[in-house]
Every structure is written in structure tokens, then in C-alpha cells.
Amino acid sequence: MITSDQLNLPGVTHGFFTRQGGYSSGIFSSLNCGLGSGDDIALVTKNRAKVADDLGIAHSHLVSAYQVHSADVMVVEAPFAERPQVDGLVTAKRGLALGILTADCGPVLFADHKVGVIGACHAGWKGALTGVTDSTILAMEGLGANRQNIVAVLGPTISQKAYEVGPEFPKPFLQQNAAHGKYFISSLKNGHYMFDLPTYLVDRMKVFGVGQVFNLELCTYSDSERFFSFRRTTHLHENDYGRLISAIALSE
Question: Measuring CA to CA, how many Å separate 151 from each of 119, 177, 252?
């Protein structure tokens, strides 16, 4: 797993896990943690148990949502039997790991270690635009976090050089703020653009007043050895893809 120095905080454990070190094979090789993928569920369960072990968390206490590209966030008090349809999770409970699944979208982990509140969110372009990071921060504040004390780290995400979008794409961002045109550059394909999702997310969190915001600057598309990528899978005409997990917990 990859860790961020900025999240190596007292009472906090975290990891942005790569695709390496698991039990799955083939296109899911090897640490596929996606319960919704076509992989053998028994192997996915073993992979997730390994992640929990690495975090020092009980296997049943690694939780993740059924992500739907929304700005919805849930406060987690205990492990749940059925995954909620949200894209952000927050908690103040120790011994719970909040997991986010990605394969190009942005995984963001948050912590205010001073009061013991953590969060995690899944931010694709739609969730980013509608404010999933904002919602996660607000939910953390509802548990007592101080926005200026929050550390937020963006993990492996598709980079601008690999993220081509269609001609209709800039419009909703420009409607939100005309200055958002800076996140788009023309692509080699006429009428198409390259979108800088990581910078948009980092800037949005800074504008929202998060105390410290960092980007690991790791591209999922360009590093096939370490990361799953939905877009790379599409370009290779593969029929499915694995999911990376990024998780954060308050140590017991």
C-alpha cells in the first residue's frame, strides 16, 4: 500500500492500496477489492481481509459503499450488512475503516486527528462537480471536525493527459464557474478536451477552506503495474476490470 506522510497522524491509519499483493488472477490480478466486479467473490473477500489486516482492523470492520457518482455522504457508526448508495463515508468511531473503490476516479481520504474524525469519498467527474468533497467535509464537521484542521489527500487518479472528454463536457463546469475553463485543454480529436480532474478536486477543496490538501500525483491509466483503470480496460477491449481500494481508520 501507498501511504501519505501528511496522513501519518497520531491515531490514524490509512493506505492507498495498489493492485498488487492479492489473490485474484487474470484481468483482476491481484488485489481486486471490488464486490461489484465479475471476480470470484471468495477471492475479493480474501483481498479485502488482507487490506483490513494491513490496516490493523477487524475484517468485518472494513466498510465500503455502493458508489453511484453522487454527492451523498453517510455517517458510519458500525459495520453495515447492506452497502448504502453513497459516495462519501465519515466516522468518529475507532476501529472502523472507511474504504473507497476506484479505477480512475479520485479517492480522497480526510482526517482531523485532533478531534478524531475521518472521512473518505469517491470523486469521479460527476461527484466532483456536484460537491462530494464539500459534502464529506460538512459531514465531518457535523461530528465535530474543524475544517481548518482537516488534512485531505487525493490518491491515484486518472491524469489530464489520459482523460479525454467529449464536446458537451466543459459546459456544466463552465456554468458552475467560468474560470473552470482552465481545467480543460484541447485534445488531438476535434471538438474534444483533456480534463484535469485531480487539479479540479484539489482546488475545490482549497477554496472550500480545507486546512491542508495534497495530491499524490499518481495516474491510474499510465501505471498498469500498480493500478487498475477503467479507461485502460476499455481501450484494451477487456470485459471487466478490478477496483483499487483506499481506506482510512481511527486506531483503537
Answer: 10, 25, 20
